[in-house]
Design a protein that fits this description.
By secondary structure, the protein is mostly helical. It has helices at 5-30, 34-44, 48-69, 76-97, 103-126, 154-175. The chain contains 6 helices and no strands.
């Protein structure tokens, strides 16, 4: 593997993150703007969980690639975020396969917990002095292994993934409200 490969992978994931962040913003805006809801959010109903599964698969694959192929050891906070992200693949796959909407609650709890840890990770990545030395000095949570498109660090990529899973599962949960699961 060439030394530029991790940076190129981070660039590709950064492009996906930009698209995901824009998509999440449009979906959130569609929740309050009726004409946008009819054009964007309502057509996603019923297939948003499948999109959330795709996000979880890409996030899990990217995470594994960075640690196993690129050799970047995950920091402690990355491990906690993995604990939240990796099961999302199975939970969302069950939700899609069995059309099991009650699984969406589990997915939202996992994504929400991951986002909370991620918020702290982003904070100490941005303000390294805030960590108070609580990170492993040999593999600190403040270390930026890559910056795709000169911005997208691994925790920033994770932020978009957790938010997208929350937003997409909310669409299908709302769509199925009142319907038996």
């Amino acid at each position: 593997m060439s030394p530029e490969t991790p940076s190129r992978i981070a660039d590709v994931l950064g492009v996906l993150a930009i698209a995901g962040a824009l998509g999440a913003a449009v979906i959130v805006a569609g929740s309050v703007v009726p004409w946008l809801r009819r054009r964007v959010v309502d057509p996603l109903a019923g297939s948003a969980t499948t999109l959330a599964l795709g996000v979880a698969v890409v996030a899990t694959s990217g995470s594994l690639w960075f640690s196993e192929a690129a050799g970047f050891p995950p920091c402690e906070l990355c491990w906690y975020q993995r604990i939240a992200m990796y099961p999302l693949v199975a939970v969302l796959a069950v939700a899609v396969w069995r059309r099991e909407r009650s699984s969406l609650i589990i997915a939202q709890v996992l994504a929400g917990a991951g986002l909370v840890v991620n918020a702290w990770h982003l904070f100490i990545e941005t303000f390294p002095d805030s960590s108070g030395g609580s990170c492993d000095p040999t593999n600190p949570c403040t270390l930026r292994w890559v910056e795709g498109l000169d911005f997208w660090t691994i925790p920033r990529l994770a932020t978009v993934c957790f938010v997208l899973v929350l937003v997409l599962t909310a669409i299908d949960r709302r769509h199925s409200q009142g319907a038996p699961t």
